[in-house]
Give the backbone structure.
Amino acid sequence: MPKFNLRRRDFLGTAGSAVLATAVIIPGKARAATRLKLAHGVGPDHPIYQSAEDFAASVAERTNGELVIDVFPQNELGTTHDVARQTQMGAVDINLTNPPVIENQAPATNVIQIPYQFDNYAHAHRVLGDTANAWLRELLAQNQFHWVANYVFGFRALTNSVREIHTPDDIAGLNLRVPPEVSIKSALEALGATTQTIAFNELYLALASNVVDGQDNPLAVSYANKFYEVQKFAATTNHIYTASMMLMNPNSWSRLSEEFQQVVSEEGLRTGKECQANLLTSEAETIAKLEAAGLVVTKPDTAPFRELMGPSYDILRERIGNDTWEKWMTFVEDGRQA
């Protein structure tokens, strides 16, 4: 499939819907192209980046250039939280993001990031894509998102510049950067770390200048953003599964023709599944790359970490609500049995 250079650094738009008809005329066509802005936060080495490029190219090809997706990677349009708000307002059309970025607005989205709830990737994908799908779709719709497809960031791992991590005791006392998300903060503090909230686009400098000892992200994200240049150790603690969902502004979605909606939906689902598969096959390669870059990578038994999650669960259950917590856990268990 041919690739297209679909990113437009000068197409930043203003407030209001970003579904715009441009003056670009497609050869052999009388009507202008419709353009959508898609934003995400990762670099070229991550499967999300690659799948987003594939999505944009495929949509353009299938619509003969009448629907163009301008891709803005690596937080070019703002932080993940900023872009989520922009998507809700319509200044960004499509966002590849983790729904708990709106947890202050919608605490129930934190169910996705309850620590150690998923056994593995297959389990997580069954829950998000099947057993909890309808419930999550309605929750996102209530918060101004149309859910197109699931991608994946991955299970979160730790990197730091102080010591190897084999047991929870090795985390105790570390000063770790966290995003402004209660689930991650509470999980790491339950393991004895102290935490600081630092914007992702400021994280590399914070690590390089020892403002913090380390950080947690899926290893593919850590590698894609070259954190190995300023860290010494990594550990596959797998404490939280970080989803990536293709979310769209509802007005941007509704303004598309049925034909374009079908193309966006089909290509989102296809590239989302490919992103999930590519992440699975690339994680071992990512670990090898981190080791080649000089990091010591450990793979601790996660059971002792899970046993210490009580304080985090108490915080999240109260924030999410007991009824929502219990309902969600039925989806998780159903996914385990599927």
